[in-house]
């Protein structure tokens, strides 16, 4: 299941984070990072998924 989340995190980072933690602070932080730059959003999403 983590592989699917990582693939989704690469395509759409906030979706990967949402599937992992829901609508928490990490989700909103990831939306902000994705809006500021696509790569920081991906890095944060993969980090959140790999951490858990």
From TrEMBL:
Transmembrane segments: 7-23, 29-50
PROSITE patterns xrefs: UPF0057
Protein name in UniProt: Uncharacterized membrane protein YqaE, homolog of Blt101, UPF0057 family
Cellular localisation: Membrane
Similarity annotation: Belongs to the UPF0057 (PMP3) family.
UniProt-listed InterPro entries: PMP3
Recorded superkingdom: Bacteria
Alphabetical UniProt keywords: Membrane, Transmembrane, Transmembrane helix
Organism: Tranquillimonas alkanivorans
Listed PANTHER family: HYDROPHOBIC PROTEIN RCI2 LOW TEMPERATURE AND SALT RESPONSIVE PROTEIN LTI6 -RELATED, UPF0057 MEMBRANE PROTEIN ZK632.10-RELATED
Cellular component terms (Gene Ontology): membrane
A Pfam family of this chain: Pmp3
């Amino acid at each position: 299941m983590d592989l699917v989340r990582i693939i989704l995190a690469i395509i759409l980072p906030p979706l990967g984070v949402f599937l992992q933690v829901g609508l928490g602070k990490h989700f909103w932080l990831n939306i902000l990072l994705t809006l500021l730059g696509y790569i920081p959003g991906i890095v944060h999403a993969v980090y959140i998924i790999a951490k858990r």
